[in-house]
Amino acid sequence: MKKILLMLALTLGTISYSQEVEFTFTTDGLTDYVITQCEGKTESEIYKKCIEWIKINYNNPNEVILSTIEDKFIRFQGSGGSGLVKYYRHGGIFTPDSRYIIELSIKEGKYKFDLINLETYSGTVWHEADCFFSRNKNCYNSKGEFKKDYKFYNEISDYFNKINLSLKEKVLGSDEKW
Question: Residues 87-141: pLDDT tens digits?
Fold first, then answer.
């Protein structure tokens, strides 16, 4: 009986602490965040590599970095330009300018990649991208698939998975000596 209870406790513990490793879209919206494992890396190493990655990949790193707490946290803003968010409207593809905010929370051996905001520009004002945070059920058909207007939304998760993969490669990579 003790063995059964122990196995049950271990199984439930594993299930309750499972973490997303990739962004995906469901009828609840985009995955809230992903956890990226960086075995053998300290908080300081991860933090420094994340800052280096931002400085390499963004044109104005001092402007896109919104907030930092050394070795613990980085918040930065990026631009997806026109093409990150696509809508199918009136027989064609509409690609508004877009911008996003990502928070990186750093712990020993891992970081949390949290996409906290995604906005599109309507020509006069920035507003939250449809179906993204609001979990707008009007974006989906009865089968739980995106309606025609939003059929490109799965590309958004691919976009942020590629960003996170690039960041992970920087964090895990060794510094090359010239």
Answer: 787 888 888 899 999 999 999 999 999 999 999 898 899 988 766 655 566 777 8
Enter the pTM of the model. 0.81
Report the C-alpha gap between 56 and 72 in whole angstroms: 20
Lowest mean pLDDT among 30-44, 116-130, 153-167: 116-130
Tally Cβ neighbours within 10 Å of residue 139. 19
The CATH number corresponding to 33-84+97-135+160-172 among 3.30.70.100, 3.30.530.80, 3.90.550.10, 2.130.10.10 equals 3.30.530.80
